[in-house]
Design goal:
The complex is a heterotrimer of chains A (94), B (93) and C (323).
Chain A: H1 2-25, H2 29-51, H3 61-91
Helix pairs in contact in A: 1-2, 2-3
Chain B: H1 2-26, H2 30-56, H3 59-92
Chain C: H1 2-26, H2 30-50, H3 54-78, H4 92-116, H5 125-130, H6 140-148, H7 150-170, H8 182-205, H9 213-229, H10 240-260, H11 276-300, H12 312-315
Helix pairs in contact in C: 1-2, 2-3, 3-9, 6-7, 7-10, 7-11, 8-9, 9-11, 10-11
The chains are: A mainly alpha (94), B mainly alpha (93), C mainly alpha (323).
Chain lengths: 94, 93, 323
């Protein structure tokens, strides 16, 4: 059981590091938005892996609520970033 | 007995999915790949759904699973049609 | 033995998701990156289901993969179709960032390893389950979201409102799509009522089973996206005035409920014991409509430019597509 949590924790850390690197380095705005979403997904995975209690048992609900909030906020931030990017591109200096 | 039948159906479904994925990778053209994706994958999903419906043991769950399959069929058919139509338009233009 | 098989599955899923994340951000063609990101979102939903998080699996499939993917695809439509040879900037920035992410990742991993080997982690799960009967719902995630940590959810709805205000202020509506042909039109005609009914069901069932306001709002927004793709430029949303009321009602009803319960001498957002179920349902209904309108407006891209209807016919005249 603990091995499951550890595997997903490490995968979440890997996603966070990958996303961080891509968020700084990517040339296109859309690529940077994708990278920050991947970063966020890594953080969510760490939360949910820490909440996992075992195969048959109910998982800890508090990190789940935090991640649910995070998913919705991530998509709205993505939408705002894309709208700002479009406005920047139309005004000519992305 | 029912467990064995469900396992068999699920394994056959997975084999169909594998065939569809290999088709996606190996077939030469967009239109042939659409064939592989829609036909093989939806049939594989149907096998898995029937196997799971047998395993679930309740009629309500079985009806829900079959509804899921019908929705995937409808969505897959419409998507494949739209993709092929757009590709045909691009070729002619 | 069975535990080892499950761990093998976990290893496969974890390595697949890291590989998909890497491929999505490192691909030079942005269209491929976006499609890989949608697949990444779906695989993440499967991982949430594996980790006993059904609410999250529903939300990730609907919002993280579905709506995020639709938003990114619509944004791709605006971009000029250039494909760079390399995706990342080169030079010393590349090395410095690589080193930084290695250090940060390493520190994070070390901290998590320590947390894992801790003997008795402090958890709030016991307190959640002890007081669950008094909270008015029996789904612990809904109880945490709308009762124990209702203040956080109020602030989250305010963040959504701020984002949609930014989108309306800055953004312009994206060009509409051509009216749907017979096949797609039939699909939209069948799916939109089904999505609305399922959204209502998820709102209701969130009290005692996986579901809730966010998933229901995402389904309704999915119906709006389908309507827009089928050729309706307004995505089936009501008039602009009604949209403003719906957007504000998410935060507004929440604050109103929180203030009304103070009349009896409770604290802000401290629901009375026998009415908490009804109050939670009221707040969730308003939140569902607000979330659906927010996400639909985010997909449209903003308001239509002043004095011009975003009519579908005009946009296609210069693209050379005959139909």
């Amino acid at each position: 059981m603990l091995a499951t949590g550890l595997i997903y924790n490490m995968a979440g850390v890997a996603l966070f590091a990958l996303g961080l690197r891509a968020a700084v380095l990517h040339r296109a705005l859309l690529g940077r938005v994708l990278a920050i979403n991947v970063c966020g997904a890594g953080v969510f995975m760490v939360f949910v892996a820490l909440a996992y209690q075992g195969p048959g048992q109910v998982a800890d609900a508090v990190p789940h609520a935090l991640v649910l909030t995070g998913i919705v906020v991530a998509v709205s931030a993505t939408a705002l970033a894309l709208a700002l990017g479009r406005s920047l591109r139309e005004s000519g200096d992305e | 007995m029912i467990d064995f039948l469900s396992m068999l159906l699920i394994i056959i479904g997975v084999a169909f999915f594998a065939a569809g994925s290999i088709g996606l990778l190996r077939l030469p053209d967009l239109y042939t790949r659409l064939h592989a994706l829609t036909k093989a994958d939806n049939l594989g999903l149907g096998m898995i759904v029937i196997g799971l419906a047998l395993l679930s043991g309740s009629l309500v769950m079985a009806v829900k699973l079959i509804l899921v399959w019908i929705l995937v069929l409808a969505g897959g058919a419409a998507s494949a049609h739209l993709i092929a139509q757009q590709a045909l338009r691009r070729e002619r233009a | 033995m069975l535990a080892y098989l499950w761990n093998l599955l976990d290893l496969v899923l974890a390595s697949l998701v890291v590989a998909l994340g890497w491929a999505a951000v490192a691909s030079t063609d942005l269209r491929r990156g976006v499609v890989l990101f949608i697949a990444f979102g779906l695989l993440l939903a499967i991982i949430w289901a594996r980790l006993n998080a059904p609410d999250l699996a529903l939300a990730e499939a609907a919002i993280g993969a579905g709506l995020s993917g639709a938003l990114l695809l619509a944004a791709l439509r605006d971009e000029p179709a250039t494909v760079d040879d390399i995706a990342y900037k080169q030079g010393p920035v590349s090395w410095a960032t690589g080193l930084l992410s290695l250090v940060v990742g390493g520190a994070f991993a070390w901290a998590l390893l320590h947390a894992h080997s801790a003997a008795d982690p402090m958890r709030l799960a016991d307190q959640v389950s002890t007081h669950l009967e008094q909270s008015g719902v029996s789904n612990p995630v809904t109880a945490v979201l709308l009762n124990y940590r209702a203040y956080d959810t109020l602030l989250e709805l305010a963040v959504l409102l701020a984002a949609v205000l930014g989108i309306i202020a800055v953004g312009q509506a994206r060009p509409a799509y051509r009216p749907a042909g017979p096949l797609f039109g039939a699909l939209v005609g069948w799916l939109v009522p089904l999505l609305i009914v399922t959204g209502g069901y998820l709102l209701w069932v969130g009290a005692h089973a996986p579901g809730g306001a966010f998933q229901a709002g995402a389904l309704l927004a999915g119906a709006a996206v389908m309507l827009r793709l089928g050729g309706n430029p307004g995505a089936g949303l009501p008039s602009a005035v009604t949209q403003r009321w719906l957007l504000v009602s998410g935060v507004g009803v929440f604050i109103a409920v929180g203030l009304i319960v103070t009349v009896d001498g409770h604290a802000f957002l401290q629901y009375p014991h026998n009415g908490s179920g009804m109050l939670i349902l009221l707040i969730e209904s308003a939140a569902t409509l607000a979330i659906a309108t927010t996400l639909a407006l985010a997909y449209i891209g903003g308001t239509a430019p002043v004095g011009q209807d975003v009519a579908p016919g005009e946009e296609f005249k210069n693209q050379g597509l005959s139909d």
